[in-house]
Amino acid sequence: MKAYNFNAGPCVLPRQAVESTIEAIQNFDNTGIGLLEISHRTPGWERIMAETEQLWRELLNIPEEYAVIFLGGGASTQFFEVPANLLKTKAAYLQTGVWAKKAVKEAKFYGEVEVVASSEDKTYSYIPKGYTIPTDVDYFHITTNNTIYGTEIHEDIDSPVTLVADMSSDIMSRPVDVKKYGMIYGGAQKNVGPAGVTFVIVRKDLLGKVERPIQTMVDYRTHYTEEVKNRSMFNTPPVLPIFVMHETLKWVKEQGGLEAMYKINKEKAELLYNEIDRNPLFVGTAAKEDRSLMNVCFVMVPGHEALQDEFMAFAKSKGMVGIKGHRSVGGFRASIYNACPKEAVEALVACMQEFEQLHK
Ligand SMILES: *Cc1c(COP(=O)(O)O)cnc(C)c1O
Question: Which residues are tagged catalytic?
Answer without folding.
Answer: 99, 166, 190
